[in-house]
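A.,

Following up on our hallway conversation. Structure tokens first:
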């Protein structure tokens, strides 16, 4: 107890008493995950205001052997940003590191602190007629540090890549409290091991990301959205190939949704208009971002949809004729997770597959699940253009959510075994956290696990950085 009191006193001396939260009431919202399924304990929630204060806190954690759980917007889905129930860690909240340090439209980069909300960074880029293309449903609350820590993807990976590809440099506080100044903004820097890529996707287990250099791009002259109705995921793959051939790099979004997804949205969010006269088994949401003109983009998209209808790839299609209609189509896609949550608890799978194998994976795995768990409902949607599926399972209509969750391990086994047979990955953009830690051991090769443990030991020998997460 004396050691804890001494540690808390040292933290208060380092950053001020207002930013060291120790009461149960003040700590509560930082200790529970976004889906409110896991609640941890912590000595304190510590909220440094700059990189130097982060370093000072990490040095104190080394001195007193206190584990650290870095946290941004706490929007993660794999319990990676909440502490365990041992109560011996601190939550290191980075929300005060929220500045946009610089925006350089000529170098096409911006330097953003880890606690900056993604939407605020997007707006700062837009203010100088530039685009930060990282776009997620949680962009109004997730933070840049969390995006990088999980190597977030989102809806524009097809054109711009995921968070790792959008990052040119990092500022990081190491597990020993030293600051790595890597905010150089260079597109070419071949000077040894790429330390940046070690910290991206590491979920705070190797160090604390405090700021990043992000790529920004010229704003497109036009963004046009359409939705196509199809019979099968294989038809969606045919449409993807057709769109890539016809539109090239102007194709920036290609989202697959099953009919059940939109049925749930219609049920729980009736204000969102369904765009077709009748339901179809599957839908694709397409977006073109054109650097020439709206007329050029419109002609290209109309020609694509006409060709798809003529070849019987899709059965119907709608082209948004206004910004409001485009926003409505995207809302249908972005509200799927919320609608599924309103329907009840569910089992989420964030998987990636070779794009050419997605249709066969869905049909094969759907059949396996119905064989073993008759009546379960597949809420299948995702970023088809980059191979990332959110392959979620809701309970059958006469089953409680708790009964479904009691079968989670068995359902995960069916899905993840199938993912592996198709040479896929059990985590595409959500990370590993604690939720998938044991699954990672099952599906990663022993040599890969051994190398990961070697890196962890080398960078964090005291195992203080987000212990128990990932490996």
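Then the amino acids I'd put at each of the 471 positions:
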């Amino acid at each position: 107890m004396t050691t804890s009191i001494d540690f808390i006193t040292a933290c208060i001396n380092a950053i001020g008493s207002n930013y060291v939260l120790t009461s149960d009431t003040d700590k509560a919202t930082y200790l529970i995950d976004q889906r409110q399924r896991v609640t941890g304990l912590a000595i304190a929630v510590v909220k440094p205001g700059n990189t130097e204060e982060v370093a000072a806190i990490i040095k104190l954690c080394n001195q007193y052997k206190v584990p650290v759980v870095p946290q941004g917007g706490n929007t993660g889905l794999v319990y990676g940003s909440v502490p365990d129930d041992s109560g011996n860690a601190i939550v290191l909240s980075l929300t005060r590191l929220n500045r946009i340090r610089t925006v350089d439209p000529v170098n096409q980069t911006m330097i953003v602190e880890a606690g900056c909300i993604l939407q605020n960074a997007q707006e700062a880029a837009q203010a100088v007629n530039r685009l930060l293309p990282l776009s997620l449903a949680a962009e109004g609350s997730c933070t840049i540090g969390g995006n990088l820590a999980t190597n977030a993807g989102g809806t524009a990976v097809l054109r711009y890549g995921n968070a790792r590809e959008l990052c040119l440099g990092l500022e990081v506080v190491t597990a020993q409290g030293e600051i790595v100044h890597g905010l150089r903004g260079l597109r070419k820097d071949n000077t040894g091991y790429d330390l940046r890529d070690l910290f991206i996707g590491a979920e705070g287990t190797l160090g604390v990301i405090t700021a990043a250099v992000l790529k920004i791009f010229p704003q497109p002259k036009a963004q046009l959205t359409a939705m196509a109705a199809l019979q099968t995921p294989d038809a969606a793959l045919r449409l993807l190939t057709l769109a890539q051939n016809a539109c090239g790099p102007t194709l920036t979004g290609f989202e697959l949704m099953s009919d059940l997804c939109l049925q749930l949205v219609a049920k729980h969010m009736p204000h969102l208009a369904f765009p077709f006269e009748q339901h179809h088994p599957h839908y694709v949401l397409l977006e073109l971002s054109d650097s020439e003109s709206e007329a050029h983009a419109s002609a290209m998209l109309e020609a694509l949809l006409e060709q798809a209808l003529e070849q019987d790839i899709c059965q119907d299609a709608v082209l948004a004729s206004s910004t409001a209609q485009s926003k409505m189509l995207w809302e249908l896609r972005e509200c799927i997770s919320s609608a599924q949550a309103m329907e009840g608890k569910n089992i989420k799978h964030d998987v990636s597959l070779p794009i050419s194998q997605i249709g066969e994976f869905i049909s094969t795995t759907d059949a396996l699940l119905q064989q073993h768990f008759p009546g379960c409902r597949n809420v299948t949607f995702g970023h088809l253009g980059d191979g990332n599926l959110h392959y979620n399972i809701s309970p059958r209509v006469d089953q409680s959510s708790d009964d479904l969750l009691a079968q989670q391990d068995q359902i995960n086994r069916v899905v993840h075994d199938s993912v592996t047979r198709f040479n896929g990955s059990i985590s595409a953009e959500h990370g590993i956290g604690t939720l998938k830690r044991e699954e990672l051991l099952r599906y990663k090769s022993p040599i890969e696990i051994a190398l990961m443990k070697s890196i962890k030991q080398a960078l964090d020998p005291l195992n203080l950085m987000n212990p128990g997460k990932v490996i």
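The mean pLDDT is 95. Curious whether your intuition agrees with the design.

B.
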